[in-house]
């Protein structure tokens, strides 16, 4: 796990990499590489190297990334990104019988949005999303809403659905739960979502002057999907 021995997470990782037929391509924003508590290394430690490939960058052209371009043009490739055009993954998984490739963008929500909309390659795969019934267990990092998940959590849920094996989700979430437990024991605080803080009058930062950002906060309070 590459962490100090005192907070080593290796005992919480699977003894052997999980056997899955789905291959993940993690598109990671460069800013995530420097985050101490990022979750992608834990995800990679749970899977075989050929089933979890990480590409770091903001812009991905067909010339510079021919392998990724080929993956995006494959009819069995899915991209996990919520929106009006996205189909619930559960519906796609029922119809899927062949091994799939799934692309997941790793970054803050604004970073992920920038990567998705400014790279035409990512509009080629079928767009899928998870049902908003899962609550994040990544309680040491603030999320916009209660149902926003970390990259590791998205991957865990998605793989469990695609592989039709609920135990995959539990296995991948084990190191995340241990990570949060360690951090809380060493002084970290539980981070409620921005949605929770706003609804309960606990948001202690100045409200934004930017009208667009202020409107987004109003939508969070009123349970409007953004």
Automatic annotation (TrEMBL):
InterPro entries: DTW, DTWD2/TAPT. It comes from Sapayoa aenigma (broad-billed sapayoa). It holds the Pfam family DTW. The lineage of its organism: Eukaryota, Metazoa, Chordata, Craniata, Vertebrata. GO terms for molecular function: tRNA-uridine aminocarboxypropyltransferase activity. Its EC number is 2.5.1.25. GO terms for biological process: tRNA processing. It is an enzyme of class 2 (transferase). This is tRNA-uridine aminocarboxypropyltransferase. Residues 1-188 form the DTW domain. SMART domains: DTW.
